[in-house]
Amino acid sequence: MSDYDLRLHGGRVFLPDLGPTPVDLLVRDGLIAGIVGPEAPAAAAETVDLRGRTVLPGAIDPHVHLGKDIRVPKDRDDAELETASAVAGGVTSTLVYLMSADPYEKVHESARAVMESGSHTDFGFHFVLGTEEHVASVPAYVRELGVSSFKFFMNFRGDEGAYLGMPGNDDGFMYDLLGTTADAGAMVNPHPENIEIVRRLRQDPPDESKGPLHAWHLTRPPVVEAEAEQRVACLAAATGASAYVVHNSSAAGLEAMRMQRAAYPNLFVETCTHYLTLTTSAPCGMYGKVNPPLRPESDLEVLWEGVADASVDTVGSDHNARHRSFKEKDIWSASAGFPGVGVMLPLTLGEGLRRGLPLERLVDATSTRAAKLFGLYPRKGVIRVGSDADLVVLDLDGTTAITASDQHSGAGYTPWEGRRAPLRVVHTLVRGHFAVRDGQVSDAPGGRYLTRPHSGATALAVANRESV
Known about the structure:
Number of helices: 14
CATH superfamily of the largest domain: Metal-dependent hydrolases
Oligomer: single chain
């Protein structure tokens, strides 16, 4: 009788404080049950020879939107297709935004059922909050539903969010939300844009002299983001809240957060793969329309500096599977957002290594830091005994050609069409199950729901104790 379900032999395994190390991993009941030398005796039901390839903790995408209208996953395809894209790209856990003006108890129940029917990744939820009832329910959402992070659209003033069924709000609402989440050990994930400035800029004649993506950038310039980040950071400090700024796109926004974090530590920054790999001159045209917009090359370079010095905490995808038919219009009428969960790890890791960033920092930005901030560590985000066997096996000498046909997404396009990532995902394991084996996605999704009792500073304190 075998002592273990699986032995991963002959790889270079990324271990905390050691980096890639020639050891074997032993898996039992979905957990990492042993880390041993390649010659150590240990009987397993199956042994897979990794042939010297690199093994990292499975990537965690902290920023995913599912559902054909991006609000809530409603059918099996919403889960299965998009999470197939995720595991094909080495992502083993996704945190999905649910958006509704209704109470979240029933929304959560139906969305969880959809995800459990077809998700290849383990998954958790963030709730987008917009009503006084939502705020009052935060302690129950944390305690009873295991959701401890909450998005607030700072730009949803007046009827700005009506197209998504969300009411308008103001800074007073945000102040109450921040205070409530601080008391609950939770975190607010603000979408930082000053919509009053955007509305003013909409009155100016459009300038497409440098192309449509640059024109879109001019309508929502970096000051729109940076001012909102300053404001939410100030209110977070006043209330003792944790704030995780999503999709920071600009040098100005990052500098605002660096300055605020020097005075108040419970502020965290996410950027996205597209802001690290695409600019306003990208050839993808309307497929690259997104909010916040793609930025010029100078912003991209500063964001990479932020990844390197860890002033950028995490990298997410802001994945949005809106169909290509909503994009094939002019820049003013095309929908914003595009799919990206499948390229988050290959492009971020590949480009980061090309730039000379340490593998340790890139693993932190694509996995470990998100696990710590969102209450998943050490279950996720690290390779150690007792952690889930969430693993990605990479051929760092291989390449991946990015095409829409290989992305699995129902969107039917990718703004990175034809680009090559300088690595290849060979296997992806979710709790010891081969979600991807030899590059082929499993036809048996097995994702499970992730309960998260805290996020932000509270979760980070727990994670730091676990790291000792």
